[in-house]
Every structure is written in C-alpha cells, then in structure tokens.
C-alpha cells in the first residue's frame, strides 16, 4: 500500500478539521505541526476565541455558501453521535432592523439576515417570528435550529480524533512554508504540505499573502446561561460593533459579543466596548440577569480578543508548487471558520488528491 506523507501546518479549526478527515484514510500518514495548540490562548490563534456557532453568511451561489452548506451535516452528525465533542443544538434567533441594511454590519451579514435565505433548506425548523412577538425596534426575525460549539472542548476533541487514527502532533515554528515538508514524523520529506496558518499566512515565507488582514473581535464570556443564541443586524453604537450571544455546551458559559473591526490588531480588550457589549446583550436578553439588574448582574469568566483571518476575495483553497514543495492552502476564513470547516476541508483534500495523482503520473 502506498503511503501519502502529509504535513498539516496549523492547529486551528481549519487545520484540525482537515487533519481529522485526512486521518480517516489509512493511506495517509499525517503530521500536524503548529506554533499554537488547543489549550493555548494567544492573539495569533483565533480559533479558541470564536463563539462558535452555525450562522451562514455566504451570498447565494458563492463558494462560502457552498462550504457552509456542506458543513451543516457533519456538525449535526457530531452533535448527535459524540456528546464528548462539546457541541449542542440551540435555537438561533436572527433579529433584523431595516435601518441597518446600508451599514457595514448590515452589508456584511446580509445573507444571514435575509428573510428568505438559502440556508432555510439546510437547517432544521426554520421559521419566521410572528409579528406580535417581535421586540421593540425589530422589523422582522427568524428562528432556526443551530449548534453552539464549546471551542475549549471541541478543538481538543478534534485533536484527539486525529491521534486515535495515528496522526502525530508536533509544535514548531517555520519561517518558510516549504520548510514544513521536513517536519513529517517519518523522517522523510512530506509529499504535500497543507497550509492552514490563518492570519499568519500574511507573513509566512513562500506565501506572504498581503490580502489577509485581521477582523478584530471582542467578547465577554459569562457564567450566566439563559440558553439563548441570538444576533442582531446592527447596533446604534457604531458600524463596526455587533450584538450577538450564544450559550456553549457542557458548562462553557455564554459568549457575548462583539465587534468586527477591520485592520485592527489591538490584542487588549477595550473596557468601554466591553460595557457596551454587555448592555446590548442584556437589552435583547433580559433573562441573562435577575430582574432589575444591569451589567453588574453578569458573572464574568473572562474578556477576550480574537483576530479573525479575513482575506480579500474570500478564503484561499487552492494548490501550488512552492520551492518544489506541493502546497495546498486552506486559510482566510474570516469569522466563518467553524461553520465552513468541513466544506473547506473536503475541497482541500480533493485538491490534495489531485496533487498526489499528478506526482504519481510524473514519476511513471
């Protein structure tokens, strides 16, 4: 049996999902190499800071929409079959305000906020909220069954699934993507390197993709758990500020967010923004706190900042040869890395198989 030696560079949700799918094929020998691993909290490592949930944002007919469509079923299956993965089902309420349609936030999330979105055929229990149930100031709303992912459990679960199938996990830092080919645990040069380095693809030698830039997000994780998942089309506090919340599975607390500050690198939480986020959360979900209480009723676990790896033109899922090393890229997913993870990983593996086939033909 021919063995394919593969190095996956990066251990965020994109890298681990790709490695997870690769490891299920016994012809693949996979090494995951990364600077940061599940359990780390670092501004360079976006995945632990995510909410994370399934709120499709891809425009109809786009690659993003395709990848998000292909990701729902695997997430649903994991939620149903593997409670140890830290995912649970939860109703997602999307609140729309007509006045937000022309704002930056309204435009970024237009596909999600559409009253008749493409994803209504994908997610279970999609339904509009009756007009007489709409909160003040809300023009329309929809509800559907989504999932909320406890990233502190799910990322280690993915890593554990990889290890169970023989994947070797290593820490390392590389200045050039081609150098990763020498990190395979067999001691032989890898046949393919899969680049899942997210925002670091901006500075990684051989890639240096200047179209990748950060979309800063700030969250507060609280112990208050009303079991609510909700998002609003915009806020009155600024075009780059968001209002959303979700309760994580397995005691993971409730995530309150947020913002979408493009080209902003600041790793430190802004206390004034945090106050606005908490006030907005209580406004759309009063049951977060006891009657009559404001933000002082929130039991804070931590404040967090993550840098979403946005890429102009969308994620890069493509193959190329760099210094004679075959590389397949899978990076630049912005704020939808989890909800497009399986779709992007499947396409990455398709490109990887084509790359290996070309190599085989070249040898013959």
Provide the descriptors you would attach to this structure in a database record.
single chain, 364 residues, alpha/beta, D-Amino Acid Oxidase, Chain A, domain 2, 9-stranded mixed beta sheet, 6-stranded mixed beta sheet, 7 helices, 25% helix, elongated
Please compute the radius of gyration using only Cα atoms. Answer: 21 Å
CATH class: Alpha Beta
CATH 2nd-level architecture: 2-Layer Sandwich
End-to-end separation in angstroms reads: 17 Å
Helix-strand makeup class: alpha/beta
- The residue-averaged pLDDT reads 96
Q: What is the count of helical runs?
A: 7
CATH superfamily, please?
D-Amino Acid Oxidase, subunit A, domain 2
- Biggest sheet statistics: 9 strands, mixed
CATH topology: D-Amino Acid Oxidase, Chain A, domain 2
Rough outline:
elongated
> How many DSSP-defined strands?
15
Domain module count: 1
Order of helices and strands: EHEHEHHEEHEEEEEEEHEEEH
Percent strand equals: 25-35%
Summarize the amount of helix as a percent range. Answer: 10-25%
Q: In terms of per-residue confidence, which ranges show pLDDT below 50 for 5 or more consecutive residues?
A: none
Quick structural summary:
Keywords: FAD, Flavoprotein, Oxidoreductase, Peroxisome. With 364 residues, the chain is α/β, with parallel strands linked by helices. Helices cover 25% and strands 27% of the residues.
Can you give a write-up of this model?
There is one protein chain. By secondary structure, the chain is α/β, with parallel strands linked by helices. The chain has a single domain, classed as 2-Layer Sandwich (D-Amino Acid Oxidase, Chain A, domain 2), CATH 3.30.9. It contains seven helices and 15 strands. It has helices spanning 13-23, 63-81, 104-108, 110-113, 151-164, 271-284, 341-363; strands spanning 4-9, 28-34, 87-96, 127-128, 140-149, 168-171, 192-195, 212-222, 229-232, 241-247, 254-259, 261-262, 300-311, 316-322, 325-331. Strands 3, 4, 5, 8, 9, 10, 11, 12 and 13 form a nine-stranded mixed beta sheet that branches. The longest helix has 23 residues, at 341-363. The radius of gyration is 21 Å and the shape is elongated. The model has no long low-confidence stretch (mean pLDDT 96). One of its GO terms (molecular function) is FAD binding. InterPro entries: D-amino_acid_oxidase_CS, DAO, FAD-dep_OxRdtase.
